[in-house]
Amino acid sequence: MLLASSEYWGKIRIVHCGVDPKLFEMKKHNGRGDRLLFVGRLTAAKGLPVLLEALAGISRLTLDIVGDGHDRKMLAEQAMSLGLSDRVRFLGYQSQSEVRERLKQADVFVMSSFAEGVPVVLMEAMAAGVPVVATNIAGIPELVRNEESGLLVSPGDVDATANAIRRLIEDPDLRNRLAAAGRKTIERQFDVHAEARWLATILARALSGASVGLRP
Fold this sequence. Notes:
Layout: E1 35-39, H1 48-56, E2 62-66, H2 72-81, E3 88-92, H3 96-105, E4 108-111, H4 120-127, E5 132-135, H5 140-143, E6 151-153, H6 158-170, H7 172-189, H8 192-208
Parallel strand pairs: 1-2, 1-4, 2-3, 4-5, 5-6
Helix pairs in contact: 1-6
């Protein structure tokens, strides 16, 4: 709508990027959680220094970081200075199947980004039944409803990030509730097969000259 004249707004249709929920097994949460997971590029936009500072204030937690980037050395040094070297693992780039295995082991998925679209990796975590803590920016609230299908925090807020993580790791019922709602969100709105069919419908009707109604 920002880029188009208002006379064309009625023609705009949304097709989400999506994932295949069938590739992900739902995780059942019991007891206190102890393992966090982050997946993404190791760059400033991902806000990992905030996550490391939050982790430093919570005992008995480990963090697996999947991905690589030019900030890896700086982040490793920060982890060391915070006394987290034995609790943070930099795993580098991993394949999609390896990421799915990491999700099976995770109790909470954390995204501390300052800039995102609608992140596929959050979709994957939600499809796998891993409750998420993410920043309340850009397209993330379109995917994650705060207190319903995940927890949202302000970007750069170390205390809020730590508190959200702490709530989830200490409360398995909350983890299971948010995880179940997250999975339903993916199945209903971000299933790649449903989105592909919707896109095909839009294109077929447009090519035939027929009007394209709102999404059913």
